[in-house]
Amino acid sequence: MSTIVEKDGFDYNFDYSACSTCEGRCCTGESGYIYVSKKEIESIAKLLELDVKVFVEKYLFKKMYKYSIKEKKIGNSYECVFYDNASNGCSIYDERPLQCRTFPFWDYYKKRVDELKLECPGVIDV
């Protein structure tokens, strides 16, 4: 089975097998926002066996009218609170937000493929 993902409208493909070696660059590095919808909040809270209100208080912060997952500062870097260094992966992988599920196929990177390649070793030119 191929590990290469193609998506219409993008001038690159993605080899998700590279995730095992990249040390979570998409989950760590510069500070940013990881937005979650109401449905995603409910799904993640259920996965973690937490009341939604408790989950929101512990793991999210409000940015304007949206919620974003908190980060933790490690040295000069930031990482998603759900990034697990030991396994080099996401501790909520099965319920990760759409924003995470769609990486690296974000409209932002359509014209910034060189920038994306610096972050993601799984990006392949087509």
Description:
The protein is an alpha+beta fold and 126 residues long. The protein has two domains: 1-26 and 103-126, no CATH class; 29-86, no CATH class. Helix content is 23%, strand content 26%. It is globular, with a radius of gyration of 15 Å. The two termini are 19 Å apart.
Main pleated-sheet profile: 3 strands, antiparallel
The overall pLDDT average reads 94
* Tally of structural domains: 2
Give the terminus-to-terminus CA distance. Answer: 19 Å
Kindly state the number of beta strands: 11
Rg to the nearest angstrom? 15 Å
Give the spatial strand order of the biggest sheet: 1-2-11
- Weakly predicted, low-confidence segments: none
Structural class call reads alpha+beta
> Which strand-content bin applies to the residues?
25-35%
